[in-house]
Design brief:
With about 350 residues, the chain is of the alpha+beta class. Helix content is about 25%, strand content about 35%. The longest helix has 18 residues.
């Protein structure tokens, strides 16, 4: 069996007194597209810079293709990075920007021209090759930045929130381009974002970070369907999962005025009940007061009040007529998630 393309073993790091990474272990196979998803300050960009060699981890080991790599300089690691800023050379044309890393690597001219032509074709830049960055749109500049990274045929391509400076329409277009080109080239990718849509659509494996630790990893749809912790449940999914404080007593789970059937084997005490807004059945069951209603065209968000806290329901289309003051809701048992109130871990075996 071949060695993993990239392996992180117990990576830890701090900035001053602040611990930003704690015991992060991650294995990435060749050709995977792994997305690190998490809120600001969770350590995902620091982890990316450790892989690139821009930051030296205080603890742990970094392996590339079965060999220790902590002592390697960034240029020796065979990795390329795409940042939020385009960082293009303003005095060079698109062709010159694409060719520059190959010139620095002393790639022969014929091969250099062939690689630039292939990369331009893949990224649909052929018509822009003689333009300078000042004559490009933001989306075009980011495609050139992507091409400059991929033209080197790196072992690993690292993306640090590359689409965050673009508007929503361009982000949608560019994430499709990134997925198409990276997979066409068979490049291994490690991509950092806090954007759910990017994470869900790009990743072959999703790694959710919080507080410098990995909360959960797996195929994006599996993570969405079965979050391992309360944090993952709240962070993965848009709109986020409803999380309601509840108590198991008698034959029921009680959350304010809401009563649910108690699963067998569940101990008495406090827990958290979760359900995604789109899985709540509306029109029957317990009536809850309406706090707010937002009609978005394709769907309607109705914010209710349950146990003194907001409880969101997503309905298809225009939702209820008029301005209702209450909405009846029911929680299907197979759509309910249960989490430990103290640790936040998913309750299993119930």
């Amino acid at each position: 069996m071949s060695a993993p393309h990239l392996e992180l073993r117990g990576i830890g790091h701090r900035f001053g007194a602040t611990r930003v990474l704690e015991g992060v272990s991650l294995t990435i196979a060749r050709g995977e597209f792994v997305v690190l998803l998490g809120p600001s300050g969770c350590g995902k960009s620091t982890l990316l810079r450790i892989v690139a060699g821009l930051v030296r981890a205080e603890d742990g080991e970094l392996w590339l293709d079965g060999a220790r790599a902590e002592e390697l300089e960034p240029v020796e690691r065979g990795v390329a990075m795409v940042f939020q800023s385009y960082a293009l050379y303003p005095h060079l044309t698109v062709r010159g920007n694409l060719a520059f890393p190959l010139e620095m690597a002393r790639v022969p001219r014929a091969e250099r021209e062939a690689r630039v032509a292939e990369t331009a074709r893949l990224l649909r830049l052929e018509a822009l090759l003689e333009r300078k960055p000042e004559a490009l749109s933001g989306g075009q500049m980011q495609r050139v930045a992507l091409g400059r990274a991929l033209v080197r045929r790196p072992r690993l391509c690292l993306f640090d929130e590359p689409l965050s400076n673009l508007d929503a329409a361009l982000r949608t277009e560019l994430r499709a381009e990134i997925a198409r080109v990276v997979r066409a080239l068979g490049t291994t990718a490690l991509y950092v974002t806090h954007d759910q849509a990017e994470a869900m659509t790009l990743a072959t494996r999703l790694v959710v970070l919080a507080g410098g630790r990995i909360e959960q990893q797996g195929p994006p749809l599996a993570v969405h369907a079965r979050p391992a912790t309360r944090f993952v449940a709240s962070f993965v999914g848009s709109p986020p999962m409803n999380l309601v404080a509840a108590e198991a007593r008698g034959d029921a789970l009680v959350a304010g005025a809401l009563r649910l059937a108690r699963p067998p084997g569940l101990a008495d005490g406090a827990l958290v009940v979760g359900i995604r807004p789109g899985e709540v059945r509306a029109g029957r069951g317990l009536e809850l007061p309406v706090r707010r209603l937002e009609r978005l065209g394709h769907e309607t968000h109705v914010e209710l009040e349950l146990a003194g806290a907001p409880f969101l329901v997503s309905l298809p289309g225009h939702g209820p007529d008029g301005a209702p003051t209450a909405l009846a809701v029911e929680l299907p048992p197979d759509a309910v998630h249960l989490f430990d109130a103290r640790t936040g871990a998913r309750l299993t075996g119930v």
